[in-house]
Amino acid sequence: MNTDAAISDLPIEFSKVNIDVGAVGILRQVSLVIEAGAPTVLIGPNGSGKTTFLRAAMGLIAPSSGQVTWGGFVQSPPLRRAIVFQRPVMLRRSAVGNLRFALESAEVPRSERQRRANELLLLVDLDGLGDRPARRLSGGEQHRLAIARALARKPRVLFLDEPTASLDPAATKAIEELVRSVSASGVKVVMATHDLGEARRVAGDIVLLHRGTVVEASAADQFFKSPATTEARAFLAGELLL
Which of 3.40.50.300, 2.40.50.140, 3.20.20.450, 3.40.50.620 would CATH assign to domain 12-236? Predict the structure, then answer.
């Protein structure tokens, strides 16, 4: 992991960010700072803006108004950031071939690619499956491979969009352990999840989104023990946010 570089995209700061698609407001007046440390976990109902937030933090969507900055800079190419979408696309090649492609894209010298690919397979517990076609891996294995592929560029920030959606408990546990390992290495993880149990297990801090706005943002312990807003208390109680 690229934990010792002098320049960082952190903190990532949203300042009164609005993102509109046509006449529909997806994010509304979002102001938030994402700093180094334990994983930041985004929670909220479907359609609350979690995926759009991740895309904006990655730099894939420009605000309609307001500003996003990375390490204080408005313009910051995503060379030190990586994102894994909820349904990652596997290339039509082996697992290790997917990693070699990512390493080539990251301009890793050819002489180092196989070694790095082997290290990444080991990191995500896929050693021994390198020669298997990536599209024949299980859903959980594909998600772990997608994370390994994202880590090929040695990012300082890793965005994960619902990485355990539709996975069984064993696959979910493997992804959560990987998230903790990546975070412990110094990479900032920002993750969206629909699973409150998962948020409790991995989050350092929580951001609750609803209708495109940040309803509450606080340390995870504080959020779960003593939520400050009516919406957060209702969400934790399993009630629908309307």
Answer: 3.40.50.300
d(CA 163, CA 169): 13
* DSSP symbols for 74-116: S---TTSEEEE-SSPPPPSSBHHHHHHHHHHHTT--HHHHHHH
Type and span of the H or E element at 14: strand 12-21
How are beta strands 188-192 and 157-161 bridged, if at all? parallel
- Rounded to 10 deg, the angle between the 110-123 and 139-151 helix axes is 140
**pLDDT tens across 143-169, in order?**
999 999 999 999 999 999 999 998 999
Assessment of whether the complete model's pTM goes beyond 0.85 = yes
